Amino acid sequence: MKAKARAHTNIALIKYWGKRDEELILPMNSSLSITLDRFFTETTVSFDQQLDRDYFWLNNQEADQLETGKITAFLNKVRTLAKLNCFAKVESINHVPTAAGFASSASGYAALAAASVKAAGLSLSLRELSQVARQGSGSACRSIYGGFVEWQKGENPDGTDSYAVPILDQDSWDLRVLSIEVTKETKQVLSRVGMKQTVETSPFYQGWLAAAESELRTAKQAIANCDFSLLGQTLEANALKMHATTLGTDPPFRYWKSETMQVMEEIEALRAQGLESYFTIDAGPNVKVVCQPETEQELSKALAQLKVVQNIYSCRIGPGVSYIAI
Ligand code: ADP
Ligand code: DP6
User: Fold this and answer.
1) Residue 101 has pLDDT above 80, yes or no
2) pLDDT of 47 above 90
3) How confident is the model at residue 188 (pLDDT cuts 50, 70, 90)?
4) Which of 11, 93, 240, 303 has most Cβ atoms within 10 angstroms of its Cβ?
5) Same domain, yes or no, for 50 and 192?
6) Residue of 55, 68, 104 to mutate, ligand 1, most atoms within 8 A of C-beta
7) How far apart (Å, rounded) are the C-alpha atoms in residues 322 and 210?
8) How far is the CA of 294 from the centre of ligand 2 (A)?
């Protein structure tokens, strides 16, 4: 009744932004990501008849009621699947900053899904595991696989056709991601809250949906041909469109800080000088820069000169979920 799993974070090149079903976590649009080697979560789940409730320990500290409640809501889905009626102790370590735009929810729920289904005695395919992880946090369904991954939004109201699919394995194209930390603060507007507000109130949301589908097709074509310029232009344009939707919400919000803009401008300036790279930003102020191995060091050196840059984490493409012997 005990299992431990490791899952890596992923960074979306074509963003998931907006749900059509809040309970099952079904997205409005398909998305595409790369899994990162550098950031990951390890989670141990023990189901135990002696426990009077679920317990959640994150980074060696017992989580508050709100966070534990989220874990219970997720474990309830696993308990229903496994026809199990006992509580669990969940111990998780994030080797990634939590709630700071580095996708801890993706690695967190992918690791929790993998550990909890195994501890509950279920034997699922990776596709089924991806569907379970999706119900914890949408982006987590992509972290089940390594390499380049598409989350197909599906059409069915019950979510049976909404899951991640690997499209290119981790060793087939050596891209690098520089995760640029400009602040350690946790974010003000969680992705979940931000995307809901966007779907409900932003007049730009329909434009986002129309563009995201065609950008996804272009990105897949670029990946099939290992066409870095096309992939880069597409992912940067997609990130800008996602963030544009937040400016139109009621009340409006934005994830960028002035530091974020300075990094974006530096990438554009370096690109104009022939150092090709592209930026993307998730639900937080930190910036991820996608580049090729031959320019990674020079880019990193140039970005480190900026006063606003606190840390640069150099990432390669990483693996899917795995189990750890305990
Ligand atoms: P991030 O950019 O880090 O993904 P989000 O706001 O999307 O930020 O998600 C952060 C939330 O994900 C946390 O508040 C917590 O509820 C959840 N989370 C983070 N790490 C874990 C973990 N290891 N196990 C379970 N849930 C986690
Ligand atoms: C901007 O997967 O964290 O990073 O499904 O509500 O848990 P929930 O949201 P989450 O949102 C990720 C949003 C994003 C884009 C992406 O990763 O595709």
Assistant:
1) no
2) yes
3) confident
4) 11
5) no
6) 104
7) 36
8) 30
Supply the pTM of this predicted model: 0.97
Does 323 map to a domain?
no
Q: Which helix (H) or strand (E) holds 319?
A: none
Average pLDDT over residues 141-154: 98
What span, in angstroms and rounded, lies between the C-alpha atoms of 168 and 298? 27
The pLDDT tens digits for 194-210 are 999 999 999 999 999 99
**104 with 151, same domain?**
yes
Q: Which residues line ligand 1 (CB under 6 A)?
A: 41, 58, 67, 70, 92, 94, 98-106, 108-109, 112, 187, 190-191, 283-284
Give the Cα separation of 93 and 260 in Å (integer). 28
CB 56 within 8 A of CB 67: yes
137 and 272 co-located in one domain: no
CATH of the domain at 54: 3.30.230.10
Q: How many structural domains does the chain have?
A: 2
**Mean pLDDT along residues 66-70:** 97
Determine the distance separating the centroid of ligand 1 and the alpha carbon of 101, expressed in angstroms. 9
Give the number of the ligand closest to the Cα of residue 69: 1
Task: Give the gyration radius of the chain's Cα atoms.
Answer: 19
